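Worked example (supplementary).
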Amino acid sequence: MTSTIEKNSGKGTSDGVVSELAAFFGVKPGHEEQLRAALDRFVEVLRTSDPAETIRTGLRDSRHVIFDEGRQLLWATTFETEWDPYLEDALLVVGAPHFFDWMQHTTEADVIVQWLEESGGIDALDKDHPDFETNARRASAGLKKIIQSRQTPAAVYFNPLGAVTMTQIIKGQLLDQAFQQVLDNPAAEEALSHPALKPLLDLASS
Amino acid sequence: MPDTMSTDHGSVPNLADVQAAVLQPRPTPYAGTYLALRIDDRRQARALVQRMLPMLDSVASFDAERQVSLAIGFSFEGLRAIGVPEDSLATFSPEFQQGMAARAAELGDVGDSSPANWEGPLGSKDVHLMLVGLAPDAPRLEAILLLARDALRDLPGVATIWQQEVFAAPNEREPFGFKDGIGQPAIEGAAIPCTNSREERLKAGEFLLGFEDETGSIAAVPQPDILGRGGTYAAFRKLHTRVADFRQYLRDRAADRADEELLAAKVVGRWPSGAPLPLSPDRDDPELGADPHRNNDFQYGDDPRGLKCPLGSHARRMNPRDAIITGEVRLHRMIRRGTNYGPPLPQGVYEDDGADRGIVFAFIGAHLARQFEFVQAQWVNDGKFIGVPVEKDPLVGANDDGQFTVPRTPIRRRFQGLPPFVVNRGGEYCFLPSLSALRWIADLDT
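After joint prediction of all chains, the assembly is encoded as:
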């Protein structure tokens, strides 16, 4: 599918069901190592989150690249949902403190601090706060505005798996696992010989 | 270090300057000996090289009638021990400088194959100089070894620290019972028969340093030029084969004796006779296996699913030819010299008799990383290149409860619980200098 600029997907570009976001931030002088450590913590939150939760946000991947001899940071991510719900859900899954953790080392830190203050403070956006969900939904517009101000759309974007969602991919994996279990059964040949199962039998040889 | 960079980097190697063992196919049958030497006195080591130079054949001078050869290789520590200057040593490939033991993680030498379990002194910094003698029979081998030992006389500063007898059986079978060493690459400028009519000869620079290679460029040549040009790298490994385990594994999963033979062929990619599965997928064809004009003359392109020869079989992994894989096959070809050691396990025996048997495998090529290490890491010990990331080479891979798929209609067969059938007992990276480089080494005054 040709890459197109989706009106509802921020400034990003999409291929099939997948949209991309690339945002560039400045790195505060002398903060490169602290930034790297914060990024490790940020991605660890994603890694240890309930897979169902990350799928719900639409996340396909997330990459932070420090470049220009430690002076700039690229945050590149792809996602399946629209831009607005992606950022809203990302904030709900990760929590503002983990965004602030790495963003405080960028030259946008002052804007981030201002956004947090306007949103009731960092504690109000912590997942442990009783009104976290309400607060986060209310605050997400500010975060989107900050990220979008640093966003540059890809000139082109290609994703060979752009036609399928993570849900479909995972379902395909589960189906294949089940199919392989069936094929390991000595009775599989007889069972799959029914005409109704011919499409499966056609896939069974390799 | 004198600047002896040559400006003539022609594509045709001078075969009168290349050690015969680098390109010369081995006789069948043959007897051979690997000797590892430690250099305690560099001047005596140079005297040894000086004495041995007249015994060394080049590819051009190799006597096809006598079929006797002697080869000399150095480890990185060996080049240092004999006095090659440090600024010259720094120009050798990083992998060679590190040595095979240091590359264990990249090579899949883990578990029983890890350097901690290697047979001494293999993998240690004591292995400096390797001598390999080959001849069609034991008496002729002994004759050439006598010459080598005579050259060592009165040189106590060069000590023999390891010796391994090897042989090729008259039927050319390796310990698992399969004909080996069939699919060698054909090389531009070398008078080696091209046994696959569908494969163009490879550029000489794939196998000799200082010449254009398949990338269209000339790889870094160890300096000075006279030391590096016309030389090549070698990797040898003493691979213990668990033949009884292999036979038992197949017997336990086969329906009958014929199925056992078929499964073994699917693992190897060839039948015991050497007949390739792409040309004879259903039964062995000894006539085909014995015919050097036909037994390597095939591709995999008409078998994309591996119904004739499994995608993950040993032979197909070692040289995927025109199969659709990730990567460029011509950049990862290698000259392979596998030779047997130890007594064969008699046919029909399924219990291990405790004897040490296996293959002394030798790789020869100009690119240790791109050829030997790539094949070992990607094609032997990974499956991503054929779309099966959980599968390794079923015969020689570092399997630990591994998996192997045999495509078949209507339903594929999948084998689980593969143990390692091959264990590395030790090895080393070597540099095989040209004859003029050996003269340069012998004349060093450092």
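Two points are worth noting when inspecting this output. Residues 1-9 of chain A have pLDDT under 50 and may be disordered. Chain A has two domains: 14-150, 166-205.
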